[in-house]
């Protein structure tokens, strides 16, 4: 399988080193074997920190893929030391990130963070319409989106209602798009989730 490497942020072509190339090829092979559209795979080196953690995302390619994935990582409070983007067979996008960690606590924080935002990473990678529109907004709104998925899951007991609220063009997206960062940051996720659910119920009535 041929891959074409392209550093989209600067437009320069390059080759990954053997170690990172192997991680990308393993992820592509795993996606093929599982028959999945989206695969998110983190690699944690078995070395004493500080270390660079690698994150590979395989997904259908779309223009905002790199930005959406990198914003999700920035929302966790981490800096990306390298970001590489490829186009593989069948128009699949491959985003490969290197994330610096200073100690064991940061590694654990990153593991927990990636697990927590996995749903949003998957939606981002698929180019979900909500994420595409939110890419135009700030990192803080993407962070709030992650938090509100969890908060709404606690507030909304009916799963059909929950799915409708978080669906593309649902009440969650409308609420986020129409509020300022200052407003969103002034309230807790649970308070915002209750407000979103109240709006949803009012419209339904």
Sheet of most strands = 5 strands, antiparallel
| Approximate strand percentage | 15-25%
Q: Examine the secondary-structure arrangement and name the CATH architecture of the largest domain.
A: 2-Layer Sandwich
Radius of gyration: 18 Å
Specify the overall morphology: globular
Query: Could you say what the CATH topology of the largest domain is called?
Result: Alpha-Beta Plaits
Mean pLDDT: 82
State the CATH superfamily name of the largest domain: ACT domain
Structural class: alpha+beta
User: Which CATH class of the largest domain applies here?
Assistant: Alpha Beta
* Sheet with most strands: strand arrangement: 1-4-5-3-2
Number of domains: 2
- In helices, the fraction of residues equals 40-55%
Q: Count of DSSP E strands?
A: 5
Short description:
It is built from ten helices and five strands. The chain has helices at 18-34, 65-74, 104-116, 118-126, 129-134, 139-155, 159-166, 171-178, 181-185, 189-204; strands spanning 4-6, 39-43, 51-60, 80-87, 92-101. A hairpin with a 4-residue loop joins strand 4 (80-87) and strand 5.
Describe it for me?
This protein has 205 residues and is of the alpha+beta class. It has two domains: 4-127, ACT domain (Alpha-Beta Plaits, 2-Layer Sandwich), CATH 3.30.70; 138-204. Helix content is 53%, strand content 18%. It has ten helices and five strands. The chain has a five-stranded antiparallel beta sheet with strand order 1-4-5-3-2, sandwiched between helices. A hairpin with a 7-residue loop joins β2 and β3 (51-60).
């Amino acid at each position: 399988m041929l891959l074409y490497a392209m550093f989209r942020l600067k437009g320069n072509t390059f080759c990954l080193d053997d170690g990172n190339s192997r991680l990308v090829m393993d992820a592509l092979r795993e996606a093929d074997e599982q028959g999945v559209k989206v695969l998110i795979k983190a690699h944690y080196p078995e070395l004493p920190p500080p270390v660079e953690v690698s994150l590979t995302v395989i997904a259908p390619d779309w223009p905002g893929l790199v930005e959406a994935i990198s914003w999700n990582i920035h929302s966790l409070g981490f800096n990306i030391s390298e970001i590489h983007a490829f186009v593989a067979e069948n128009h699949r996008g491959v985003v490969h990130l290197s994330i610096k960690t200073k100690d064991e606590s940061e590694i654990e924080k990153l593991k927990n963070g990636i697990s927590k935002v996995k749903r949003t990473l998957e939606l981002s990678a698929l180019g979900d319409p909500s994420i595409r529109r939110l890419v135009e907004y700030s990192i803080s709104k993407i962070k709030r989106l992650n938090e509100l998925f969890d908060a709404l899951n606690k507030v909304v007991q009916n799963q059909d209602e929950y799915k409708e609220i978080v669906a593309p063009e649902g009440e969650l997206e409308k609420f986020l798009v129409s509020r300022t960062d200052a407003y969103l940051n002034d309230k807790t996720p649970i308070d915002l989730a209750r407000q979103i659910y109240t709006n949803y119920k009012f419209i339904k009535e």
